[in-house]
Specification:
By secondary structure, the protein is mainly α. The protein is built from six helices and three strands; from the N terminus they run αβααββααα. The model has no long low-confidence stretch (mean pLDDT about 90).
Length: about 120
């Protein structure tokens, strides 16, 4: 199971904030999530939990830490897609055909570009 699929809603919100910022201190993440009325200690607990799950990297910066996502949003999304294909027990070919059959023109164009880049 990928780390992202094991994340709660607040963990996901903190990770989304880090993706938006690139890297941030706990204080910066807390400020970005101010509309949620969260205690600073709650944000720090979530960042610590994400670091223990190896979803974010933590580097000392003075007396505090700076946090950054270990993997990009795209890489984690790809992990979820692979996980879904692996865990459903469904026929992989059929699942992919179904996915592509329901994809938007924009998604299909992106898939074509990605396949062309691999060739």
């Amino acid at each position: 199971m990928s780390p992202r699929s094991r994340m709660g809603e607040l963990e996901q919100a903190v990770l989304e904030t880090l993706w938006d910022l690139g890297s941030a201190s706990g204080r910066e993440v807390h400020e970005r999530l101010a509309g949620r009325d969260l205690a600073y200690t709650t944000v720090m607990t979530v960042l610590d939990r994400l670091a223990r799950k190896d979803v974010v990297v933590r580097e000392r910066e003075g007396r505090a830490f700076r946090y950054a996502p270990r993997r990009s949003r795209a890489a984690m999304t790809a992990d979820l897609m692979r996980e879904a294909l692996d865990e459903t027990g469904a026929d992989r070919d059929q699942a992919l055909v179904s996915f592509v059959g329901e994809a938007s023109e924009t998604d299909l164009a992106a898939l074509r570009r990605a396949l062309a880049d691999l060739s």
